[in-house]
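Q: Could you write out the predicted structure for this multi-component system? I'm mainly interested in how the pieces pack against one another.
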Amino acid sequence: MKKWLLASAASLLATGAVQAEDAKIGVIVGFTGPIESLAPAMAASAELALSEVNDSGEFLEGVTLVPVRADSTCIDAAAATAAAERLVTTDGVVAIMGADCSGVTGAVLSNVAMPNGVPMVSPSATSPALSSVEDNGLFFRTAPSDARQGEVLADILTERGITSVAVTYTNNDYGKGFADSFDAAFQAVGGSITLTAPHEDGKGDYSAEIGALASAGGEVLVVLGYSDAGGKGIIQAALDSGAFDTFAMGDGMYSDALLADLGNDIDGSFGSIPWAEGDGATAFSELATAAGVTAESSYTRESYDAAALIALAMMKGGEPSSAAVAANLLDVANAPGEPILPGELGKAMEIIADGGEVDYVGATNVELVGAGEAAGSYRYYEIKDGAFSTVSFK
Amino acid sequence: MDLLNALVALANFVLIPALAYGSQLALGALGVTLIYAILRFSNFAHGDTMAIGTMVTIFVTWGLQALGIGLGPLPTALLAIPFGILGAAALLLLTDRMVYRFYRAQKAKPVILVIVSMGVMFVYNGITRFIIGPDDQSFADGERFLISARDFKAWSGLDEGLALKSTQAITVVVAVLVVALLFWFLNHTRTGKSMRAYSDNEELALLSGINPETVVRVTWVIVAALAVVAGTLYGLDKSYKPFTYFQLLLPIFASAIVGGIGSPVGAIAGGFVIAFSEVLFTYAWKKVLGYLLPASLAPDGLVQLMGTDYKFAVSFVILIIVLLFRPTGLFRGKSI
């Protein structure tokens, strides 16, 4: 027995020595909840970047990046905090790709990331409030703040000659922040807002909201919600009752499911979504399609970029640690340096290993400004014949 | 003319939607209330029973659609409802056999059964997501509108449109039929009477030779039928998404409690009270008053009693008032 114990202990030690070191990266997105249909593609995109880094064989002396998934639920701050706590304390992740929705992201940041010194890179939290939140230099996002998107949407409406709108937003940090920035921007260019009414997600019935919005009137209804949840319910109810025919939509409303369900009924509606065009976006689509990941879903590009940035920052810092990520992330994301597209992570590793500089461009033309958030470019789309068609980029 | 416009606007945005939503809530609340009356616990798994039953209905609907079998202008899902009911009934009976019967034999306290039903709720929740996924599913077909807003405007020459979706009409008609059938069953059949006897006094019912297991089984089957009908009508009228069904639990329980939990009439009344209060108290009267009042008096503001954010608060305030002044609910259900 004693011999056997000794033997197994020895073999354990041996395998420990032979096995490469693992660095765990938390992937925390809302696998359940209002954006549960977007989450799988987001997580898969982030993991795509990590496996690309691993496969390149250039990463930090054979350290392997291991993604660990957790559910942010998108709306339940307590559940998200518990999930992130588990990631940090039990799984020992060194950095977090996530969280997704703005409310839970703020909660995870202040309750888990800051006390433990773990950096977070959110691919999709767009609330303006997160720009000024206290973060000890640990919070980054590859999605732009909605303060910017509010201006873009107001611009689009002005371009179309629309001067009076009713607004409905999803009642959370994202929706409220977006609605506030849109209201301010639209009124600044002389537009009038007849009513700004929040709606709750996942509720059974939106007759009350539509009744009030229809009574207030307006040329179009601005919907700043989620396509999976209340936003779609609102549009459906507005169409059914004939309250509004045309909708101006925020980024959360962009989804193929919306078109499949409503189709030609919303022809002529339009909206904005953070979007990247150019080589990076194309490279990402090819990469994702080859790996069987839905590239065209929302925030897949940002998720890939978030995970890639974490890996590059570790490489730059020379160790797979939280401190290395926090200290070097801005450095690898911005100029100067060799531009890096999706699929070129191996090349980037080599450049860094040789002491060179990289400027990660990624799938979304990453340029982190301010406290570490994406500057953002937006696609202005219109729905024609039941499909999204691009009008311009802003 | 203005008076007509005002009436049409009110009907379009308040009366019709609230009537349809109220019917859906009433059917849901009937299921909850029956379980409470006969099995003596609040079944938190009811929303997810609706989701699972509707899921079966959807699969059968898709199958029928693929085979080209339909009902013409009516949604095919109506044909598939019996299959959904069979599926849900089988599941509920299995759950009862495996879970609830154990606690019944132990004479567990209602509060324990409530927690048990929560566990069942999470399991159902998971099963639905495993099989059909978390996404929205559409399975409605047939004519979408009986009257569409645009056609109505052209026909009547009024400024306001009136929309009546076929699903809204079907919802109300089916709800009336189902409720009538249920009441006939409870009041005029032997099994229905034994269920009421069991609900009134368990010991006395046992002494008079009623088999409790039969009563329980029949109850589950009826509950399955109510849940699937409610779930399918709701899915046809709005959309099918498992998460929404889970969330429906709250207004359904509010309806059952306002009406008096354990009382079938109360469940129906409660459903309509909740649905109408959500819409009426938060409606912006600007448009309606604009038609009714002379131009000089027409309001500039929205004339909204409170913002739509408060619509849930309204139903809960009603709930609290009812519980304070009439703890047994509007129709004297069992006091909790």
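A: Regarding packing and overall arrangement: The domain at 147-274+378-393 of chain A is CATH 3.40.50.2300 (Rossmann fold).
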